[in-house]
Design a protein that fits this description.
Length: 339
Amino acid sequence: MSAKLFEPYQINNLILKNRIVMSPMCMYSCHNEDGMAGDWHYTHYTSRAVGQAGLIILEATAVTPQGRISPRDLGIWSDAHVEGLRKLVSMIQAHGAKAGIQIAHAGRKAELEEEIIAPSAIPFNDQMKTPKEMSLSDINDTVLAFGKAAERAKQAGFDIIEIHGAHGYLINEFLSPLSNHRTDEYGGSVENRYRFLKEVIAEVKKVWDGTLFVRVSANDYLEEGLTPDDYVTFAKWMKEDGVHLIDVSSGAVSPAKIHAYPGYQVPFSEKIKHEAHIATGAVGLITTGIQAEEILQNNRADLIFLGRALLKDPYWPRTAANELGHPIEPPVQYERGWK
Ligand code: FNR
């Protein structure tokens, strides 16, 4: 059987060798709280490139120190970060994978000693810190920090930038009325809540003409929160603003009960793909080759993002290929022992 999972995929001017994406996952492994890539990152990400994933997206990488989820997150807030990231990119690309980076700001979900910032001074829950409401100059500075991060990502040689707009971090906090109670031009109407992301995309695109993804949480799972329909609107605007693919996750902007089961977020990807006419990635409890193949063949997503399955099995592409009866080429070094 010829599996779509292993067909090359062209997006913008980039060709991925297959449809398997390593989903961004924080590793909390920077020593000295300096955001620098180190041995763990080189080993961990390169293993998945050896394992034949088509695209590796680095974990949420902070655009400012204050935007880290934890003190041990990767960072891209200074020029000093470029060298380590460049090494990581070349190690990933050496195995035929493309390299992406998720640029992020944690907003009110930053678990740091210092002051944290968000659209409104509302904590995520009663265990977490109350953020400072961002002033217009905080907003402007943060938009510029995303632009600087994109410039550095370009210097490091990344093939793809993914803007982290999901999981209740800063951009998501602006989008959702649950976390954004502003009364200025960044809050209130849908257009106003989208404004921060719109400015981030525009700032990134000033320096980045490459492929651009945005990860979203397409459902808040709460009565007053955002729904997949709202995200169809946002996705249409993102397409107009030059985004190439929406990576469709869900939840985590405010505490909510989520019923998670295999492929539970795939319907959101399918809806956005067909109603906003933009490429999408599906993610969330996708664990087998057959499941991935079903999603692609039924046109419910263009790419398959894998998180925990790739943590457990760096050779998941080979496992899926065997399952689908679609042999794939090994890395040359493994030619005698791959089958
Ligand atoms: C994650 N996830 C995540 N998502 C994201 O957008 N940025 C991130 O940095 C992280 N960090 C992270 C760390 C770890 C250890 C895990 C397990 C997950 C979410 C991840 O990308 C993915 O969306 C979910 O794990 C669901 O997919 P799976 O794991 O069911 O394939």
